[in-house]
Design goal:
146 residues, Immunoglobulin-like, five-stranded antiparallel β-sheet, three-stranded antiparallel β-sheet, 8 strands
């Protein structure tokens, strides 16, 4: 009888572990922005390579997003204009350079997520310590996450 109880307990624990591991990770709506940035002798080169609506894992979300009035300077500011206003800003350090820099733009709440088919303007802006733009680029995307 004791052996049967241990077997049943082991099966229950195994089922709990299996169920916990097989749950899908929470997905968040975001805008994935791939861009290029270089600072060559004080001249900033900035270009958006691609931008698209996506669902990301919670672990991929920016550690911190900023309101427009509270973004650190200097930096590379990544944000979008929607029908509901401006998204929070994702900040990237100004000394980040390369051909394939990726940043994700998030939303404050589910109510702020665009409706399917909405056109957004995505902006990447490298700014100095007082907020003056070194270089900027923008593109339009249609909200249709995959």
């Amino acid at each position: 009888m004791m052996r049967l109880a241990k077997t049943v307990l082991a099966l229950i624990l195994l089922a709990i572990v299996f169920c916990g591991c097989s749950q899908q990770a929470e997905k968040l709506p975001a805008i994935k922005v791939d861009f290029m940035h270089y600072n060559i002798s004080g001249t900033h080169l900035l270009k958006i390579n691609s931008a698209k609506a996506v669902y990301i894992n919670l672990s991929e979300a920016p550690e911190k997003i900023y309101e427009q009035f509270n973004v650190p300077f200097p930096g590379i500011h990544v944000f979008a204009y929607t029908s509901k206003g401006v998204t929070p800003v994702t900040w990237v350090p100004i000394n980040t350079e390369g051909d394939n820099i990726t940043a994700y733009i998030g939303f404050k709440s589910p109510e702020d997520v665009p409706k399917k088919g909405e056109v957004l303007i995505v902006v990447v802006d490298a700014v100095n310590r007082i907020g003056k733009s070194y270089a900027t680029d923008s593109t339009r995307i249609t909200w249709n996450p995959k």
